[in-house]
Automatic annotation (TrEMBL):
Belongs to the SYS1 family. This is Protein SYS1 homolog. It is a multi-pass membrane protein. GO terms for cellular component: cytosol; Golgi membrane; trans-Golgi network. InterPro entries: Integral_membrane_SYS1, Integral_membrane_SYS1-rel.
Length: 149
């Protein structure tokens, strides 16, 4: 059954969980290494690179956040067939947020690679978790009252 209110609620919930977790990851790691805490780490596409430790830790954070996104898909969506749709929607919204934040379209190769890898991890792991749940055996109790024939 198609329920637009449910779908929009799930999109908002997934996006919220992903950004809150991303912010927490950034805050924890930035505090640990003594770096400044900034929204640039989440939205500025030029921050994503492998030249120094700051760029590398952003990459690691995005990969960890993709795993959080997969768990969120499993927890909120609970349907294998819808995982790719919700994962793509979350990353499309992130693309739009980055575009608005920077006032320019993300153009670095590293940003695109990281987001494609992040999308793939979120989608595949989310589908795996949902499929594992969907394929669990349905317990049928054989110890109920026996009927006389």
């Amino acid at each position: 059954m198609w329920d637009p209110f449910l779908i929009i609620s799930q999109i908002i919930a997934i996006q919220t969980v992903m950004y809150v977790c991303l912010g927490l990851w950034i805050w924890i790691v930035a505090s640990f290494i003594g770096s400044t805490k900034s929204l640039d780490y989440a939205f500025h596409y030029k921050q994503i690179h492998v030249r120094d430790f700051a760029g590398q830790f952003i990459i690691i954070i995005f990969i960890l956040n993709a795993l959080i996104g997969a768990i969120t898909l499993w927890w909120l969506v609970q349907r294998t067939k819808q995982c790719m749709d919700f994962a793509c929607t979350a990353h499309l919204i992130h693309l739009l947020c980055c575009w608005i934040y920077n006032a320019s379209f993300p153009s670095t190769f590293s940003w695109w690679c990281l987001n494609i890898i992040s999308l793939s991890i979120m989608c595949v792991c989310g589908e795996f978790l949902c499929m594992k749940t969907e394929l669990q055996a349905i317990p049928l109790s054989m110890n109920s009252q026996k009927t006389a024939l």
